[in-house]
Amino acid sequence: IKNLEGYVGFANLPNQVYRKSVKRGFEFTLMVVGESGLGKSTLINSLFLTDLYSKDYPGPSLRIKKTVQVEQSKVLVKEGGVQLTLTIVDTPGFGDAVDNSNCWQPVINYIDSKCEDFLNAESRVNRRLMPDNRVHCCLYFIAPSGHGLKPLDIEFMKRLHDKVNVIPLIAKADTLTPEECQLFKKQIMKEIQEHKIQIYEFPDIEDDEDSKLIRKIKERMPLAVVGSNVVIEVNGRKVRGRQYPWGVAEVENGEHCDFTVLRNMLIRTHMQDLKDVTNNVHYENYRSRKLAAVTCNGGVDTSKTKNQMTRSPLAQMEEERREHVMKMKKMETEMEQVFEMKVKEKKQKLKDSEAELERRHEQMKKNLEAQYKELEEKKRHHEEEKSNWEAQQRILEQQKLDASKTMEKNKKKGKIF
Amino acid sequence: LLKCDGEGARAVPLAGHVGFDSMPDQLVNKSVNHGFCFNILCVGETGLGKSTLMDTLFNTKFEGEPTQHNQPGVQLKSNTYELQESNVRLKLTVVNTVGFGDQINKEDSYKSIVEFIDTQFEAYLQEELKIKRTLHSYHDTRIHACLYFIAPTGHSLKSLDLVTMKKLDSKVNIIPIIAKSDAISKSELTKFKIKITSELVSNGVQIYQFPTDDETVAEINSTMNGHLPFAVVGSTEEVKIGNKMVKARQYPWGTVQVENENHCDFVKLREMLIRVNMEDLREQTHTRHYELYRRCKLEEMGFKDTDPDCKPFSLQETYEAKRNEFMGDLQKKEEEMRQMFVQRVKEKEAELKEAEKELHEKFDRLKKLHQDEKKKLEDKKKSLDDELNGFKQKKTAAELLQSQAQQAGGSTTLKRDKERKK
Questions:
Q1: C-beta separation of B208 from B174 below 8 A
Q2: So what's the ipTM on this one?
Q3: Do the chains contact at B277 and A16, CB–CB below 8 Å?
Q4: Which residues form a coiled coil (chain B) (predicted)?
């Protein structure tokens, strides 16, 4: 790394990023899950110091649902020049039925559908600026029984921990003494570890001061919270709290509950990280599962599939196309070879046939010629014989003639009687 | 590409300090921890001081030898450096066009530049489309700013400049600068700048405009837009002026101070490029130039956002449809090839059959000829045999006659002899 001599100016980049982010504004989606009556709405109002749920917009506790619904409320809040679009997602009816099997399903469906929306928006050809409505954090409210997690708690967290950042909270913590609370927390963490549930671990932000704090905070997990919309005067201070005959449980008093810790972690230090983990981990998991199902024929785990996963579908198709072209070329060459061979065979056969026929023809011709020669020879021989014989005959004839002439002469002479 | 305009949200007042105003800081801290990256492309003829300017801008000596003028084509050489200023780490990549403007025929000069830029877009696109992807840790090589070096002729842009910039303006943020501007006098410079700007406008070349939508920087950006193209001078040599060492070029007639705004626009360039708008340059590259490339590429491959009935496609449907179409295509091609082959085989078979037939016909003819010859021979034989027989008969007859005659004569003679003896 080169350290620069003299001023360049890119140390100002963070300011540029700051400026742009303020201009763009921020958004955050927070989901709250838990049985009715655990003070979810009150906690939200306390966290954001606003009446998210008011007379005009009643909270889920005032609505009686027969089945689990998932509802969202969107508000716009501004502070210090920073604009935040906050979406609170409610799950009224959760855990309230007699048979709560599958009451987590609507929650899972909601989370998945937001990821689906984002995936589709991200995959369009014409992409426009997309809002991020994915669930960044899920606060899970545990009833302050003091004993341990209920089966529903375990089941829910097991099913959701790989889809969303889960932060379990002990609700209405003002019903537990500090000792009871400690034991309860220990028990819960033990069960969470036993069931291999991965809750959101507030990671160390690179700042030595804060990391010490953060480690201390981790020892307090799960956070035990108390919420209140009511401001009470305690020793001259105006505090938010719950008034009891025996005293006031102060929301923002660290010795009374972990509310402040939650607020600081959730909003002041780790809000961005919650979004990053949602984007880089939970969403990516959703996306790769979804795409693998489409392009890898149901995600059958072979080495081919593993290769496909590290390639974009376009590259995948390109690869398949290339493979196919090669296959076709090979097929073509093979077919060509077979073709050539067969043609050669056939041609050779024809040639052999032709040669054979020619040979036979030659032979027959030779045969005929031989016969002709023989015939000629015979003829010549005969001619010769004939001519000899005729010559002989002529001589004989001459002799005969001479003989008869002599006889005649002798007869005439009378010597012959 | 995320927007947060609070659509559909109702504004609610806050009863106290919640603390989300720390969000920008949270974001900034994360970015600083992650580090930044910036990629600059320098386009310009050999000898216009591109490397020197980079050295001067970033106050460091980058590697490299000055190039010769005999390059056969335009090549792009890129070097990556890790710089740090205060607590900010920057991965800077400087890409140089080597051999630009040196060829006799410069028609294809822009091509390797466009190809390079596209290759970086393509790499990002491929990563973005992967099933298992790691965009978060991807080293972004896309070009965020293109400094186009204009030769200080003082007259106008060269046609090579116009052609090249026109090809690049939809792919990258172009910042035109007048190189080695210490060769131009102030009055000439004003005229030169006006001429260049009007030529760019009349040729429809879109150069990068410093953004004026954010009030914080709108004013300075707007002013600077009016100073484009920046007339720069680069130098890593230091000269003592007063009691300070400054970057300068020393001439017999005076010293050109690089960081003196009266002498050249170097400081303006540094302000705009690095200190004020570096992040905007990165953003524009991602949201405008890259999106354009991506859209064109996907459309080229036949991807659409809606199906023929104008219903929106989901991603799966798009991929599936595309893939089915694609596989169908391949099947069809394969089938075609097979058919063509079958056809060829048929034709060749017919050909060979034809040849076979001809051969047989030939030999049938020969056979016939042979038969005829044979017949002729037979006839000749027969006639000879007849003659032989005839001769034989004649001969036999004659011999018979002779023997008879002889016998008779013989017997006559015998008679005679017998009588005589009596």
A1: yes
A2: 0.74
A3: yes
A4: 316-394
